[in-house]
Amino acid sequence: MSSFSKVIHKFPSAFWLANTMELFERWAWYGMFIPLALYLTGSTDTGALGFSQVEKGTLMGTVVAILYFLPVITGAIADKFGYRKTLIVAYIILASGYFFMGKVSSYSMVFLTFLWVALGAGLFKPVVQATVGKTTDEDTSSIGFGIFYMIVNVGAFIGPIVASFLRGFSWEYVFTMSAIAILANLVIVIFFFKEPAREKNTEPLGRALLTVLNNIMKALSDVKLLVFLILIIGFWTMYNQLFYTLPVFIDQWVHTGAMFDSIHNFWPGLANALDTQNNGTVASEMLVNVDALFIVLLQIVVSTIVMKYKPLNAMIVGILVCSIGISLTLLTQNGFFLILAIFIFAVGEMSSSPKTSEYIARIAPKNKVGLYMGCSFLPYAGGNFFAGQISGGVYGRMSDKVTLLENEVALQGLDIQAISETFTQNDFFNRAGELMGMNQLELTDYLWQTYNPSKIWYVVFGIGIATVILLWLYDKLLLRSKS
């Protein structure tokens, strides 16, 4: 304990300020991002936008993929112009972007505004991580990055809780909350943040960018790195269904009303806290958010257990556990069982996700570790893009409640006007229920039994298992032959 205390006291103020800014930025991002799929696809009479699943998947997947490519450019910009100036610009972009996301409603404007937010996030991301790296050394880096990872998840846990309460009043408040969190960071960087010691880059920006791109191409010429990066895209495609698909799936299909009643019977206060929409249900983003809670509570324990295993083995086992956890959602509409599934998923995530960077560092030649680590963003970008495709067109065809009900209405020959600006999704559901002689709970159960919308998780499970098998073959065939 005394050694831990000594390490803590070694961190300079820039380290703690960087972690504080990370907390507020993750608060803003996840507070917006976890309920974003609900906002994009929900019924317009609730203040949501009523976009299709395809539009949602395309918007989220494309923009976040671009976000993860941006650090290639923004990292060079930060090195050229300085961390403090870059952070100020990033926060101005982020705060304005979040604020206006709650003001626009057309698909094109939402897309452009979200892209503006991604630009700000892309400027922020490499600067804060570099600051943590430059304010730690060999003695403090392990604990330092452990603190950083914990702070990430603390922000990711707090943001959606606050956002869930705020959307009960207005969706616009969710985006205002994110803007305010970023403005807190702007105050911190203007009045308190000092530039950490670093080598100033005197190279012209264009040449610096060409150097970065050239370095990435050099690293990707290593077949074992290139194949690994391609394979691990499967993991991130599966993982991101937690944000892209699961909130919508819970909102459309899981009986959270029964879950609320069960909790209320023995702990009314907790039940009321989880019912952020005041409708006798548990908000879907509150259920998804238990993943971050499990990570905050258990990451150190899981990391301690898996640290003795080779990174690739830990990743393979972790991805297998993730696949099992996320696929368990196909078995039932019970909310309590869903929490168990998310817990299993979180254990796999904690085993595999932190090991990705460690593995890349392990396979890199000693003089090229930085070069190889510069490619670690590529699977995140690819995983988000393909996650958008799965949660868009694939979910839309197989599991979207609106689409399935429209199909059923057509099959039964019911005369119901199409969803429009004046006839919302909820109007369509209510009218279909009236004509079919069912209340909304009965209608949901009927569609569940008739169309089996949970089969979307077979697709997600298949992606996870394919990734596990391919990584195992990669280990047995490519790595062994290389060694």
- Tell me the CATH topology of the largest domain: Growth Hormone, Chain: A
The helix content, as a percent range, equals over 70%
CATH superfamily of the largest domain: MFS general substrate transporter like domains
Following the backbone from N to C, one meets helices and strands in this order, namely HHHHHHHHHHHHHHHHHHHHHHHHH
Number of strands: 0
- Report, as a whole number of angstroms, the end-to-end distance: 41 Å
Largest sheet: none
Q: What is the residue-mean pLDDT, rounded to a whole number?
A: 87
CATH class of the largest domain: Mainly Alpha
Shape: globular
Oligomer state equals single chain
Structural class label: mainly alpha
Low-confidence runs: none
Quick rundown:
By secondary structure, the chain is an all-alpha fold. It contains 25 helices and no strands.
